[in-house]
Amino acid sequence: IVGSDNADYLTGGEGIDNLTGGDGADSIVLTETTAAADYIHFTLNTDGAAVTTLTDVTAADDDFAANSYDVITGFDVANDVIKIDGTLLASLEAAGVTSISSSTANFDADAAGILVIAAAQAKLGADDFKDVTAIKTAYEAGDGTAANATINDVIIFTVENNSGTETGIYYFKDANVGAGDMTNGDILALIGVVDAVGFTATSIIAGA
Question: The whole model's pTM is what?
Answer without folding.
Answer: 0.92
